[in-house]
Amino acid sequence: MHGVSTEKVAGGKLLRVKVDFEERIKNVQITGDFFAHPEDIIEKIEASLGNLGLDSSEEQIREKIENVIAKTGADVVGIDAAAIARNVIKAIGAI
Amino acid sequence: MKAGNAFMNMAIDEAVCESVASGGAPTMRFYTWAPSAVSIGYFQGLNDEVDTNAAKEFGVDVVRRRTGGGAVYHDGKGEITYSVVVPENEMPKGIRESYQLVCGWIIESLKNLGIEAEFKPINDIIAGGKKISGNAQTRRNGVLLQHGTLLYDLDVRTMFTLLKVPKEKISDKMIQSVEERVTKILNFGNFSIQDVYDAMLKGFTNGKECEIGSLSEDEMKKAIELAETRYKTEEWNYRR
């Protein structure tokens, strides 16, 4: 199954999260007009969300993303961990 | 100021970044787009943003940038694009602060034309309450690249044909609403594109030691290679 959720983050940029899932999350793609560098931080966040259970809470997903960002020291501007987590949950629920 | 195609424009910016990363002098570049083009932000989905059939029909190139930000229609006669490539340690550490610094040079350029403008975080410049310049920045290998556009003229209808907005939304109402949010230099006076370039050159270089030059042979060679191996490829442009 495939779900998409789009949000114009308040005070920030447009965020679109696409999620492929069955019993678990299979693939997450994060797109939008935000800024991030090093750029591969977004691929690292996407990879960290693969194989998560569909029962993961928004809070758990947010923490996971925050840890990936903190570990790499990347700058993400215009979106944040909370917005990504919120839209992962919405994308799954959108089906 | 030179006109280039979308792939070479992006490839040259990257080749200059490599050159500055290996100790070359900080570089500012001013260019236009021939043919007109759409560039999309590094993290955007090409099919989400661009009507590729319309782009083909209009003979407009489509390229993914190395920088984030949104999709931009670069009208060949409607804007001047600049790029600034400088070692990261010569710029403010914070993203917002470094945007503000370079955007300050655009504000000064506009002032040279008698146009009052201000920085609107994260990455815009507004004049008369409307957006007149969009900017995008990235940092890699100790080098900061910021490029952006200054709108000279604006063909809203073509822009919305190329950028993916449902056709039914390209109504007069929507065009009016974009014109309420976006402005152009020609709204402020009967300036030529040369006037704008002169004002930018002065605004960007004021107080700095600069010399006008052209790309080195190595930079040009690298740019041609990058255009072929990255910016023209489907693998790059459709990666998201």
Structure description:
The complex is a heterodimer of chains A (95) and B (240). Chain A has 95 residues and is an alpha+beta fold. Chain A has a single domain (2-93), classed as CO dehydrogenase flavoprotein, C-terminal domain (Enolase-like, domain 1), CATH 3.30.390.50. Helices cover 39% and strands 31% of the residues of chain A. In chain A, strands 1-2-3 form a 3-stranded antiparallel β-sheet. The mean pLDDT of chain A is 94. By secondary structure, chain B is an alpha+beta fold. Chain B has one domain (2-234): Bira Bifunctional Protein, Domain 2 (BirA Bifunctional Protein, domain 2, 2-Layer Sandwich). Chain B is built from 9 helices and 10 strands. Chain B has helices at residues 6-21, 46-49, 52-58, 95-112, 156-162, 172-181, 193-205, 217-231, 234-237; strands at residues 2-4, 27-33, 37-40, 61-64, 72-74, 79-87, 117-120, 124-127, 130-140, 143-151. In chain B, the strands form 2 sheets. Chain B has a 7-stranded mixed β-sheet with strand order 1-2-6-10-9-8-7, with helices on both faces. In chain B, strands 4-3-5 form a 3-stranded mixed β-sheet, sandwiched between helices. Classes of the chains: A alpha+beta (95), B alpha+beta (240).
